[in-house]
Amino acid sequence: MGKKIVMSGMRPTGSCHIGHWEGALKNWVELQEKYQCYYSIVDWHALTTEYQDSKYIKPNIRELLLDWLSVGVNPEKSVVYLQSSIKEITELFLIFSMITPLGWLERVPTFKEQKIQLKDRDLNTFGFLGYPLLQTIDIIIVRGNIVPVGEDQVFHLELAREIVRKFNNFYGNYFDEPMGFLTPIPKLPGIDGRKMSKSYNNAIYISDTTETIEKKIKPMITDTRRKRRNDPGVPEDCPVFALHKSFSSKHEMKEISDACRKAAIGCIDCKKILIKNINDFLEPFRERRKRYEKLNVMDILEKGNEKARETAKRTLEEVRELVKI
Ligand code: SF4
Q1: Considering its fold, how many domains does the chain have in total?
Q2: Nearest-5° angle of CA 188, CA 192, CA 197?
Q3: Core-most of 17, 81, 150, 284, by most CB within 10 Å?
Q4: Total-model pTM
């Protein structure tokens, strides 16, 4: 038996921040040691919500790829590819659109939620309604068995399993029902204390320089109780401390936590420790990025496209036979 196949992807809508590392990329790097992984830059997915202003999608592809490579996604171990280069995905999507009930797509929670959240754009489109099916196709076309998912994606995966089941009932047991690999999504705060997000302009990026990290963290808000140096604080109410949890050792956190409660450490010194720890953490990524920047990374992507296309072609040929089309 060959290795199990992991499939995951990200939209090229901007650079990766440290929340992406904690919530996804860290896992991707580990999974590639044990499984055959397919990691896709899903530009058609970006188009489902960004179709009115799509010019940013293409330039983001190289940046996203560099982010992945810099954190240790290894193109020698994993297939790294661009979704829109695999035209077989569109045909399989079309075939599956024939058997996917509209009601299943309409009840996807993010369908309603995103329409409310993204009020500035018209999401009453066939493409937006169909994007969970497109996700299903992304997984099954490379015969994915395992999908790393956060809690917010569990519904999508369940839908994928239902759709696969329906296909298998009609045409014979061909596809495995993909299994979720539940990954906890840490709630990393941004530099303004809100959830870290590119759209809030509060993110710390994997590609940030040492100076940028310092510039971003120094003015961060802290626990509001610490108006003066000798006011004690509550670290649990401080976004700086929330970042320490991801980047500082247990020992440092204990020391900071005790000192903060007794006002034995100032916020400036506390932030200096965090700045150092984040920079130390990002340094190997920066080094690797420099090495990849000297190469033509789009060639690396093209090699991945070829591998993914080969698998996708095989799947599609077999599906055509099963569907008798
Ligand atoms: S000492 Fe550190 S944890 Fe305490 S309030 Fe200041 S920045 Fe936050």
Answers
A1: 2
A2: 50
A3: 81
A4: 0.93
> What is the average pLDDT value for the chain, to the nearest integer?
94
Please give the residue range of the domain that contains residue 47.
5-188+296-323
Give the integer Cα–Cα distance in Å for 295 and 297: 6
- H helix intervals, the chain: 18-20, 26-31, 43-50, 57-71, 88-97, 102-106, 109-117, 126-129, 131-141, 154-171, 210-217, 239-247, 250-261, 267-293, 297-323
Question: Does 179 share its domain with 106?
Answer: yes
Is residue 15 domain-shared with residue 159, that is, in the same domain? yes
243 lines ligand 1 (CB under 6 A): no
Position 203 in a domain: no
Co-location of 120 and 224 in the same domain? no
Q: Which atom of ligand 1 is nearest to the CA of 266?
A: 1
**Contact at 8 Å (CB) between 289 and 66?**
yes
- Domain with residue 258: its CATH number is 1.10.240.10
- Which pLDDT score, from 0 to 100, does residue 1 have? 62
Query: pLDDT of 203-229, one tens digit each?
Result: 999 999 999 999 999 999 999 999 999
Are 151 and 223 found together in one domain? no
